[in-house]
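Recall that a protein's primary structure is simply its ordered list of amino acids. Everything else, from secondary elements to tertiary packing, is in principle encoded there. The following example makes that idea concrete.
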Amino acid sequence: MATVTLESVSKVYDGNVRAVDRINVEIGDGEFVVLVGPSGCGKSTTLRMIAGLEEISEGEIRIGDRVVNDVPPRDRDIAMVFQNYALYPHMTVYKNMGFGLKLRKFKKSEIDRRVKDAAASLGITHLLERKPKALSGGQRQRVAVGRAIVRDPECFLFDEPLSNLDAKLRVETRAELKTLHQRLQTTTVYVTHDQEEAMTLGDRVVVMSEGLIQQAAGPLEVYGRPANRFVAAFVGMPPMNFLEGRLIDDAGRRVFEGQGLRFVLDGPVAEAAAPRVGQDVTIGLRPETLELDSTAGEHDAMTVQMSVDVVEPLGSQMDIHGHAGEGIKFVARCTAQRLEPGVDVRLRVKPDGVHLFEPGEYGARLRVPGEPEPTSAAPQMASVGV
């Protein structure tokens, strides 16, 4: 096992197109780090540079204490699992798993031991004599992981390995990969576009956009204290609701006004708002922190009036899609109850569910007093960082 360190690493293509732009990240020995972001954000390019499949344009990559910028992939002591698994169709599972060891001149007895040990740990011993065409998608995925395990590398690299599986199998295999990592404790870098996958698998989540790291932190920090609006919008399902407006002072109360909505801020977020009175801000409201408010009377508090368009039942919960204020789209995830499209409802906003951001797509989140600075906001973008 080893650390993986990227210092000011860039990938520049013809035409000065920066797919990855001077990123810095250190992945600890035995850590499971997930690179996540939308298509084209640079996450797969970053993984391929670590693997040596993509030449870096600037910076330095170290695996352990060794600089590997010019080291070919086969000599980096890494094992990679691809999206398409890349199994040899004419070989049995046993031969697929042992082929890399055979090329490296391992003894037959050692190959046999490693393949059978890996097969047993993955529950595929009964498949060793089958060929890939006789396997399901989940079984092929396990074989690909097994082929990586037998090498006993310093680092595992996963490039969206679950994207070809159906939803149920993805959830099951996700748990298996987490359990496997807890047992092997091998340094792991995992790429996905699925934020739920990133949150459940990673010890640390690295959110990327436009070739930059927007935040690198534990899953709960990324969710609860997003560094900027982009991270807040990307992490969480359903996505966060955003309102554009201005903070005003009303007899000592911090009030948000904008897009036909007005409510009084309460709790720690009111303290965060105090220095911004008179300025434009963006408010973010997570759908799961909104609840139906059935109390009578007018409220000048943290409530939002919404007209319901669609109700999606989810068992014990439901997603309510509608519009509020000046026709802005709004979604809330509430406790399930009978509710019909076309009605108007009032949603109470839990104070700890309110986030304030500077204006713009990458506007920094305004911290409440005493809160630590966000981890790894991208300093290259003028609107990021507080």
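The CA atoms of residues 136 and 235 lie 31 Å apart. Confidence is low (pLDDT under 50) at residues 379-386.
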